[in-house]
Amino acid sequence: QVQLVESGGGLVQTGDSLRLSCAASGRPFSVYAMGWFRQTPGKQREFVARITWSGGSTVYAEPLKGRFAVSRDSAKNTAYLQMNSLRPEDTAVYYCAAGKIYRGKPPFTDEAYDYWGQGTQVTVSS
């Protein structure tokens, strides 16, 4: 079992940066990849980015490439989402997710992940 706790959300202004953290715990700790998703009220949850735990391979939602960056610190069992040049349309609840093993599912689908955090709110004011 893996527990995920997001932090780092808040209220920022357009153009600001924010870094979200996702602290993972569990014994033994073993995941294949961790992903970030976001959701706004009335909309489906959408994929943001994913990173594989051992190799650090990354995948991004195309519209967010260049502004968002995902990373991980294996020693701290923590994944990060660096968000730059934030816009009001980035306002959402951001969730991290962990996939135990590689299942051959696309990284932008919920089916690639086994565990989810509770989410952290990011609000970007104009």
Short note summarizing the structure:
The protein is mostly beta strands.
Tell me roughly what share of residues is in helical segments. under 10%
Beta percentage is over 45%
Our Rg estimate from Cα atoms comes to 14 Å
What can be said about the biggest beta sheet? 7 strands, mixed
Mean of all residue-level pLDDT scores: 95
- Globally, the shape reads globular
Would you list the SSEs in sequence order as H and E?
Answer: EEEEEEEEEEE
Uncertain spans: none
Structural class by SSE content: mainly beta
Distance between the termini: 40 Å
Q: Could you tell me the number of beta strands? A: 11
Number of helices: 0
Write the layout of secondary structure elements.
Layout: E1 3-7, E2 10-13, E3 18-25, E4 33-39, E5 46-52, E6 58-60, E7 68-73, E8 78-83, E9 92-99, E10 115-116, E11 120-125
Parallel strand pairs: 2-11
Antiparallel strand pairs: 1-3, 3-8, 4-5, 4-9, 5-6, 7-8, 9-10, 9-11
What does this structure look like?
This protein is an all-beta fold and 126 residues long. It has strands spanning 3-7, 10-13, 18-25, 33-39, 46-52, 58-60, 68-73, 78-83, 92-99, 115-116, 120-125. Strands 2, 4, 5, 6, 9, 10 and 11 form a 7-stranded mixed β-sheet that branches. A 4-stranded antiparallel β-sheet has the order 1-3-8-7, with no helix packed on it. The radius of gyration is 14 Å and the shape is globular. The termini are far apart.
